[in-house]
Every structure is written in structure tokens, then in C-alpha cells.
Amino acid sequence: MTRQVRRNAPHTVELVGVVGFLLVTTLTVFMILPNGTSSVSGVFWSEWSATEYGPLGPADVDALIKVRQAGLWEIPVGQQAADRAQSSRVREVGATIADDHVLMDEQVRDVAARLDVRLPSTPGEDQQRWMDELTGLSGAEWDRVFADRLRAAHGNVLTVLAEVRAGTRNELVRSFCQHAILMVLRHITLLESTGLVDYGALPEPRPPERRPEP
């Protein structure tokens, strides 16, 4: 019995060494993969790509897509406001938003090209629905819906951009999000200056208990 134990001891040590190596490798993989990756199999890691500006993740790509789609509907709607709005203030705000998004669209397409990200060429479903809604309106009702829809949309994209700006590993995306956030805040202020925003219809902020620790 003693000889058998001694004969198997090298195999036992070898097995322990293999297990230890696997544990260290697993921990190392978890440590070096970007946040949001929950598998060591590579399933989620495949959604990331390496760029000269740092790792590019799904949230980074989503932020670029959302900015692009914002421009695809806010440029034509802003231009419509400049021509169709009843209120002179809404006409001014619409023209400014359209002009800003023309410039922002050039920037997001440039960033996407440098990061090899494919951007959409059409607005999202909700955005198209809002455009169709405005098409059937006129006068003061057009102005009100314009202010409400765009104010809500800017609040949504602000949340996305702020989260990506806070945690992205990609320096180009970080710089772009910072610039985009400033533009979104400017547009929110402009839309609210029309006096037509229904704050009661906006999504409520998350309760404190559901927010991550600062």
C-alpha cells in the first residue's frame, strides 16, 4: 500500500500543478478582460476589438450608433421646425439643432471610420414614428410635440453617452462622447427655453437605491 502511494505521488503532484495553472490562468483572463466580459470562453470577448486608441467594446459602438441615428432624424426635423414652427423661438431652436447635428454627423462618421464601425443609414423605429407623427401636425401642436419628443430623446442619449464616457477604454470614443455630451446638454437647454417641454412626461430618475455607488 505504501509503495502504491509513492508510485502515484508524482501523478498527484502533476495533477495539482495542472489545476493550479488553470486557476491562475482563469484569474488572469478575468483580470485582463474589459468590464462587462463574464465568460472566459471568448464568447463575449469576441464583441470587443483592438484599435490603436484602445479596446473598443459593444457600449462604445452603441454610443456611436445612437449619435448617428439622432442626427438622421433631428437634422430633417430641425430643418422642418425652422420652416414650419409657429413659434419664432421654436424656429430658432430647430435651426440650431439641425446645424449642430450636421457637424456632429460629420464627426461621428469620421470616428466610426477610424474605428472600423459600421453606422446605420436610417433612423430607429421610434425616431421614424416621431417623424411620421410630426408630419400630420401643424401650428402650436406641432411646436409642442417637437419640443417634447426631442427633449425626451436628448435625455435618453445623454444617459448613454455619460455612461460610456465614464467607463470606456477607448480614448477616441472618450473624447467624442465628451464633445457629444456638451452638445446634448446645449440642446436640452435650448428645447426647455421654448417653454413647451412637459416635464411630467419625462422618465423619472432612478431611485437612489438602484444607482451604483459613486
TrEMBL record:
InterPro entries: DUF4142, Ferritin-like
DUF4142 domain segment(s): 60-188
Keyword field contains Lipoprotein: no
Keyword line: Membrane, Transmembrane, Transmembrane helix
Transmembrane segments: 12-33
Keyword Transmembrane helix in annotation: yes
Domain of life: Bacteria
Name of the protein this chain belongs to: DUF4142 domain-containing protein
Species of the source: Nocardiopsis lambiniae
Lineage of producing organism: Bacteria, Bacillati, Actinomycetota, Actinomycetes, Streptosporangiales
